Structure prediction request, 312 residues.
Amino acid sequence: ATPLVIDTDPGIDDALAVLLALASPEVDLRLVTTVHGNVDLAQTTENALRVLHLAGRSDVPVAVGAATSLVVPQAERAGHVHGAAGLGGVVLPPSPASVDPRPAVVALADLLMTSDEPVTVAAIGPLTNIALLLAVYPDAAARIGRLVVMGGSASRGGNVTAAAEFNVWADPEAAAVVFRAGLPTVMVGLDVTLPTVLTEAGIARFAAAGEVGARAAAILRQYLDHARSSYGTDGVVVHDALALTEAIVPGTLRTVRRDVVVDTGPGAARGQTLVDRRTVSASPAAIAVAEGVDSPAAVEFLVSRLVAYGDG
Ligand code: BDR
Ligand code: CA
Prediction:
């Protein structure tokens, strides 16, 4: 199985992404690193511990990352989307585990330097930790096998502002550092996540799949209520879980190598990922931008893996 790290800010779809990874034999979740984002760092860390415990995997180390963005603190959290405590108002049982004593970048660097096999890193929150890794441990960062980022948008505009997707908006300077680093990066942006919607019918299929399925369904149903009232959509956009699907099964998404620039200016486009869609890039620093998705197949993959929690 491919060694995997999830860098995350749980977060409803983050929680789902972690549960998906733990249900997938193709990957071996070796480390979770936490970051500020949807809610504050203390809460994302607590949520990460609790989600792992829910799945019976409190053995997976959780290392605490950045509490704030590199340059400009995030203007507001996303409690209105994810609930004040980040998991849609659902309170999961506390984990007996405590956090790893190492800061996230140290834990990440240790794993990258000691792994015999290339490590996949799924970054599904603001990119602060990955930017810090590049700055502090460039040799370790250079060993990343694949970096799958949920973030940005090539053609759909933003979801926080007209221009910016949340994870890039939350720390544009970090995203700029990561996107120009020349790492083997896949950008899973709103282009592919917005059309990938988990409906109540899908949720109902795993709602009886043991404790994990029941809790996941409860968390998602809160999000469903938000989606209905805010966007009028009849389903949950599971951004981070789609990024994990690409991390678990490379090639799930159709990608095209593009030059990508992150707008870090103070204007209305701050946090925009400016994707040059005119040509396929030959640059070694190009990003594999996800432009095509079979959404029904991706949702089926997610649902079937969650249903399997009912077997054991
Ligand atoms: C991203 O923003 C967060 O709210 C979600 O968890 C996801 O990572 C989507 O824009
Ligand atoms: Ca997230």
Remarks:
- The longest helix spans residues 210-231.
- The longest strand covers residues 27-34.
